[in-house]
Amino acid sequence: MTWLDKIRLGLIYTVAITLIVMAVAFSVLRTVLPHATGYIEDVEQALCRQIGLPVSIARMDADMYWLVPRLKLIDVVIYDKDSQRELLRLEEAFFALALADSLLQWSPTIGDVSLVGADLYIERYADNRWRIQGVEFSGNAAQVSGNNTSSELIAAIKNTSFSLLESDIHWQDYRLQSESLDFIGANIYVEEYFGDHSLEVNLQLPEIYGESFRLVVKTSDDIEHLLEADLDVYIQGKKINIDQSLSVLDVAEWPEVKGIFSGELWLTMQDRRVSDITVDALVRQLEVNRENRGRFSVDSIEGKIDWGETADGWRFNGRDLHLVKQAVAWQQPANVALVQDEAGLFASASYLRSQDLISIAGVFLDEEQAAIASAYQLNHFGGDLYNLSMYLPAEDSANIKLSSVFENFYFQLPDSDISFNGIDGSLLYSDARASIKLLSEKVAMDFGELFPQPLNVDLASGVVHVEHDNNRWQISTDNFYALNSEVEINTRLELLKNEGRAWFVDIQSDFRNASGASIQKYYPVPIMSADLLQWLDVAVTDGAVDSGSFIIHGDLNRFP
User: Fold this and answer.
1) Per-residue pLDDT, 552
2) How far is 90 from 474, CA to CA, in rounded Å?
3) Shortest CA distance to 475 belongs to which of 416, 557, 558?
4) Residue 6: how many CB atoms within 10 A of its CB?
5) d(Cα 288, Cα 324) in Å, to the nearest integer?
6) Taking a C-beta distance cutoff of 8 angstroms, is the pair 324, 308 a contact?
7) Residues in CB range of 469: below 8 A, 6 or more apart
8) What gap in Å lies between CA 243 and CA 253, rounded to an integer?
9) How far is residue 129 from each of residues 249, 411, 477, measured CA to CA in Å?
10) From 174, 283, 368, 518, which residue has the greatest number of CB atoms within 10 Å?
11) pLDDT digits (tens, 9 = 90+) for 174-201
12) Of 57, 61, 62, which Cα lies nearest the Cα of 40?
């Protein structure tokens, strides 16, 4: 047998003997403790010294939990300093031995405390006072009629991991004048490990607040000032009524939020503000209203979202996002990435319904970001975008870059009444010049007051170029094809508009199979004289034109 085999065998024997001795010892302990009533008084005195309050115990027992010995106390009552009033009554209390600390200190040391079956009353007052089981906390300094009961309780919590299991919690917030809330069968865990603290709360909620709620908070700061500490927070909920829950928490400086939340949320608090948020959830009937920033509402939104601050801006990532607004669902789940920094805004997405994203983003932008978005007049655009890539510079708007495939797209030229709706194709925009490839069905083209009504086409194809330089717009195409039941047109056009001046047009169109009965739709009424319109209405009433062409060239204000 080698020396390694001997060491391994020795370790196995040592562990086995230790487990046997522990099992025998605690079997004896479990047999003796229920009858060792003389020790109950000693345990009561030890607990009294530990928490600074009188304690009474009806019975004792012992057991093993994950190879850790535990002392079990039954029917425990904790009194106030004067032993006149019960502060807390427990069905059971477990005290687990801290093996490592006990071996290091060579004396029994309590590692974990579990309290079972408490009936806990918590009250919150308008002047920043709290009362828990009659123990009052005021501001940062806790006090009870001149004694230090609450300070001793907090000190005990700081230095011991404990659990509050299968307990009923009764909450009353007088500051909000809300009704009393009862949480039945709640479980709370507080752990301390080398200066790090964690709090876990599991609740079954009253019906008006939802179904279930789980909260985990971790910090390395002082838990006595938890609201001022840097925190890592995890929340899990099922059918949580957001508005109702936030009204109880009274969270300041947050947008007004309504909806039903089911899912998980992680967030990081630094310097009393949120610096990172991760959400994997489904929210129904979501409404967000931010004062001076507008509002948005959706039927439902689900997916995974990650937002966080960076050194000079923020970042956003969304995966498997799906949204329904006004009973209209997104065509497919979307993956989205946004980064905003001092250089501008970078964005990419597998799919987006642009008008929905614009309305949502507008609520969360700060003043500087909102000013940038307003300068680009994003509210003039909308539709389904695929394979989107975009860069919006913070200062030089001439360097905007954008590429995307789009469906059912609409846009309106800023500072004009000209718009197009139902466009399918692709867009490449760079250096203030857009190249739009079109292959669309059912397109509505509204030239504002130029024509009596929008010009609808069943099929449109071609490449359209749009240039924008300061307040100058230029739209051109070398070969634009349009077809509807009234006419078939091939057009070359150039539209030019400078600030303060009318449109300059250069159009040459060849048409076929034109219907004379529908010709009135295509009259540029505002630039035609009343006499000319009257003559055309009488002169052209019906018939068909196999082929023809027309040319318009010049300032529309001077036509005809």
Assistant:
1) 82
2) 80
3) 416
4) 10
5) 15
6) no
7) 398, 432
8) 14
9) 15, 56, 72
10) 283
11) 776 566 788 889 999 888 776 788 889 9
12) 57
Q: Which tokens go with 129?
A: 């006072």
Name which of 286-300, 343-357, 376-390 the model is least confident about: 376-390
pLDDT tens digits for range 446-485: 877 777 778 888 999 999 898 877 778 888 999 999 898 8
Q: Which of 430, 428, 415, 510 is nearest to 464 (CA)?
A: 428
What residues contact residue 352 under an 8 Å CB cut-off, 6+ apart?
A: 334, 336, 384, 385, 388
CB 191 within 8 A of CB 219: no
Phi and psi at residue 230, to the nearest 5°: -75, 130
Q: How far apart are CA 442 and CA 458, in angstroms?
A: 5
Give the predicted TM-score (pTM) of the model.
0.71
Can you read off the two tokens belonging to residue 330?
Answer: 């997104």
**CA-based R_g, the chain, Å:** 37
Backbone angles phi and psi of 210, in degrees to 5: 135, -155
- Amino acid letter, 165: L
Cα(293)–Cα(361) distance, integer angstroms: 10
Over 135-152, what HEC string results?
EEEECCEECECCECHHHH
